[in-house]
Task: structure prediction
Amino acid sequence: MKSVGNNSAEYIISNKYNVDISIAASMSPIKVEKDGIGEGIDYYNYLERFGIDLSLDRVRELLKIFGDPHRQFTTVLVGGTNGKGSVTTILSSLLSGSGCRCGSYLSPHILSLNERISIDGKQISMEDLDRGMLDIRDKSRYHNIPITQFEALTALAYIYFFRNRVNIAVMEVGMGGRFDATNVADPALSIITNVTLDHTEHLGNTVEAIADEKLGIIRKDSVTLLGPSPEQVGYGYIEEKTRELSSIRIVNGRDFSVKIMEDRGGYTSFDLEVQPGGNHPFTLRSIYGLRVQGARYQALNASVAAIAYQVLGHRDGFRVSDEHLRETLKGFSLTGRFQSITKTPHVILDCAHNPSGMAELSGALRSLIREKRETDSAKGLNYHRKINWVCSFMEDKDIAGMMREIFGVANNVFLSQLPLERSATVKDLTMKTAETLAEGGKQNGRLSRGNKKIRNYSVFSHPENAIRAALINTTGYDILVIAGSIYSLSTYIDLLKEYNILEKSSLTGSA
Result:
């Protein structure tokens, strides 16, 4: 056991691995290189201090100055809790490959700010992003419009898409929906991937309250697509509310369903089955033998994108190709979505950042470790494979809820504070671990959850020490998972490169 100096001196860190963490207190934060190249990006970074202020008035006023670019092309809004980025990316790829000039807007980014805005798969250049942000700065100041960081970037996306003549833009909604900056557009199609508990401090403490906010992207005379929910809690309420809000609905479980054929951890095979006689004007068809890289949840996301692809093809008159769908899904890869970045050891990155997302990830890991052990057994081998987990969290998340899922599958857990203002601190992580242990029941210093026991856990004040401890205790036969916060992935990717687990040139943001 070792205490940490400076501001964390009063907190005791469980250090089972005898890693020297005494340098953590004096260590300066990991350098996070600025994405920008000039005044425009400086202005974007400056806006972070104004935080979150949910409203549509400011961004509407700003976009009016630019000629209302968000009204000049077809818009799809992708809302919900989990899976939004995957659905947005898959659908954008399908549309671009069908002859549409398609803009895509994602949030947040993982490696580089310009990941968020792209056209036909090509990211906005940092030069264009800088110039566009500078233009927004000058006009918002001249007209006295005090916008937030997310509003500025969303406005820039709409302006950039218009100036570059897109036919359609697929926009990932941010935290909520009703007052999200993306919602200034009138979407031709509103997609709700699923609704679970997240961002409760801003959206409400129940699934129903959160649904009220997220369903605010729906328009009465537009199409609404409701995806499969991993949790049935509140789903009846959500289905009922969409019926009130939208006259044209396509609903999972009623109009289409996903049948998982094979879940091998690294990929999932599935059938998309369409029920005939749906209460909508579209000719949808079943598609069998689809396959997507990643876990089971990615098949659910892919099914929503596939239905949206068919709806938009019917609406806008482009040809929907089953073969194009198959090839797009087969080649689909998105940073941090059950992403295997090395094989020895098997390192997996994932964006899961709430209990429902963590439950899906944990299920995928169970499938993967079972597959590896079955293969070992068939060969007469016994490698005693482990799942080691490195995680950091934002302080406003349901940390205890996520840790319950992590503790249910991991053998060893390495928790760390991040050098970010919103990060859960050493104190937070220590307290939440203690709460979870108390809830699960402590036996010989281990968390008991069914027949599963956490053999070790440690809390660190710096991610470099967490990743070092994890690597020391990970063999080439083990699985090392890095998940807990989207905002942590870039830090851990950089550290893996420093330790030569990853090539320096791999997983970089590109302009």
Remarks:
- Residues 355-378 form the longest helix (24 residues).
- The first strand starts at residue 2 and ends at 3.
- Residues 1-36, 441-452 have pLDDT under 50 and may be disordered.
- Residues 2-31+337-498 form a domain with the Protein-Tyrosine Phosphatase; Chain A fold (CATH 3.90.190.20).
